[in-house]
Design a protein that fits this description.
The complex is a heterodimer of chains A (110) and B (120). By secondary structure, chain A is mainly beta. Helix content of chain A is 0%, strand content 55%. In chain A, strands 2, 4, 5, 9, 10 and 11 form a 6-stranded mixed beta sheet that branches. Chain A has a 5-stranded antiparallel beta sheet with strand order 1-3-8-7-6, with no helix packed on it. In chain A, a hairpin with a 2-residue loop joins strand 6 and strand 7. In chain A, 38% of the residues are buried. Chain B is an all-beta fold and 120 residues long. Chain B is 0% helix and 47% strand. In chain B, strands 2, 4, 5, 6, 9, 10 and 11 form a 7-stranded mixed beta sheet that branches. A 4-stranded antiparallel beta sheet of chain B has the order 1-3-8-7, with no helix packed on it. In chain B, strand 5 and strand 6 form a beta hairpin. The termini of chain B are far apart. The chains are: A mainly beta (110), B mainly beta (120). At the A-B interface, strand 4, strand 5, strand 9 and strand 10 of A face strand 4, strand 5 and strand 10 of B.
Chain lengths: 110, 120
Amino acid sequence: QKEVEQNSGPLSVPEGAIASLNCTYSDRGSQSFFWYRQYSGKSPELIMSIYSNGDKEDGRFTAQLNKASQYVSLLIRDSQPSDSATYLCAVNTGGFKTIFGAGTRLFVKA
Amino acid sequence: DTGVSQDPRHKITKRGQNVTFRCDPISEHNRLYWYRQTLGQGPEFLTYFQNEAQLEKSRLLSDRFSAERPKGSFSTLEIQRTEQGDSAMYLCASSLGPLAAISSNTGELFFGEGSRLTVL
């Protein structure tokens, strides 16, 4: 079992729709959770961090965490073609190591 | 540009050669990480420095890999006797954290543009 699992996609949504990206993790003791965006040929860029159960909103992005279910999600409202990228879920499992999932490719159709 | 910088951006080498990558983190950041990423995969943790101390190293990292961070500033990652399986993007990241405690923001990483290695 991979430590951080994501559906590889691609997830295709029309412009203006809500994109929903999901992630599960295996280490129940994980404390910190992150979403990174990675454009093709570029390096990852942090877009959201969440540390406690519930929702956290930042502009068009909402991160959701459910530690009991070991589940993290990212919602992107009013999706734009510029949101087309790979979204990486990352989990800090204790110590200084952050584990990344393989990423979900998102394609927003104009 | 005050972000994380990496050099070289691209390196093509023959199998068996040694290569070295350099990373200059954001100046005030005390934490520095090396990751490796292959196509279709997420970044894979290699090693971590807090200031000049290498505090964690992946068990997946073979003895051919060595990293240093002298004086707690820039870092180098050397791969000896390269193999074709070493071909990947090598990513450096930095962050700012407390000197001693593991803070909740561990994982808020700022990545450089990466050094792409191709081993022929």
